[in-house]
Write a structure and sequence with these properties.
Layout lengths: L1 E6 L4 H13 L3 E4 L11 H14 L4 E6 L3 H7 L7 E3 L3 H11 L3 E5 L5 H13 L6 H9 L8
Parallel strand pairs: 1-2, 1-3, 3-5, 4-5
Helix pairs in contact: 1-5, 2-3, 4-5
Keywords: Isomerase
EC number: 5.3.1.6
Family: Belongs to the LacAB/RpiB family.
Length: 149
């Protein structure tokens, strides 16, 4: 499995640890930054880079890390075809993949340690999409454009 990883300065340490773990698990990992600790850098940069790669490379996954995971999740979900899910446990990771065909896992460096991140990422990568008609229909609607009030 090819996995694109990215983080801001607050998620850098967890991202690097997780990337190493994923390589040990047999994944091909492509690091999209941050590459060094630069306090105050923007989470947007890594989220955009990973989202673009996942969108342009079918059958790949992404992992993003920032302090809360909210920023990277919101940014990544701005891209058509990207379904980013903020997961803080293995059950939410399983459901994100199984029910929603999530293709980007977002983790909080503030709330998730290395060991927990490894378990969540393993579950995310190993779980397949439950290809039921209702799930496909719902996922297809995610990319609809409209003016929502």
């Amino acid at each position: 499995m090819k996995v694109f990883v990215g983080a801001d300065y607050r998620g850098l340490k967890l991202k690097d640890s997780l990337a190493k773990f994923l390589v040990e698990q047999g994944c091909e990992v492509v690091d999209k930054g941050a590459y060094e600790y630069v306090e105050g850098d923007d989470f947007n940069d890594a989220a955009i880079a990973v989202a673009k790669e996942v969108r342009e490379n079918p059958n790949t996954l992404g992992v993003l890390v920032c302090d809360s995971a909210h920023g990277v999740t919101i940014q990544a979900n701005r891209f058509k075809g990207v379904r980013a899910a903020h997961c803080e446990n293995t059950e939410s990771a399983r459901l994100a993949r199984e029910h929603d065909d999530a293709n980007v896992l977002c983790l909080s460096a503030h709330f998730v340690d290395d060991e927990k991140a490894n378990k969540i990422a393993s579950t995310f990568i190993e779980t397949g999409f439950e290809n039921l008609e209702r799930r496909v229909r719902r996922i297809n609607r995610l990319d609809e454009r409209g003016d929502y009030d």
